[in-house]
Design a protein that fits this description.
single chain, about 100 residues, mainly alpha, 2 strands, 5 helices, Cytochrome Bc1 Complex, Chain D, domain 2, two-stranded antiparallel ribbon
Length: about 100
């Protein structure tokens, strides 16, 4: 009886959730804090500002994952995001989801 109850509670809590697999440690591992801060501006935008900017965009996760790996410029003024090709596609998606969760 107890395993069934645990399963039912887990399903209710996590069944429809899209889990965020990245965390602050993944930002550290990928050296994201060299240019970004969660709530303090460095060379690039604050992650909370990125989350707010893209909060209502349907394709925000794949778009940010592409930007993480390919780099970009022009969105945040003269800031340039160098390509982070060493970040796997799966990690880039997880990072994008985590960053978007920071709003």
């Amino acid at each position: 009886m107890k395993p069934l109850l645990v399963f039912a509670v887990s399903l209710c809590l996590f069944g429809n959730a899209d889990p965020v697999l990245a965390d602050k440690d993944m930002l550290i591992k990928n050296n994201c804090f060299a240019c970004h801060g969660i709530d303090k501006r460095k060379y690039g935008p604050k992650f909370v500002d990125v989350a707010r900017k893209y909060a209502n965009e349907e394709d925000a996760v794949p778009m940010l994952a592409r930007k993480i790996r390919a780099g970009g410029s022009g969105v945040w003024g003269e800031d340039i995001m160098p390509p982070q090709a060493q970040v796997s596609e799966d990690d880039a998606v997880a990072l994008a989801k985590y960053i978007l969760s920071l709003q």
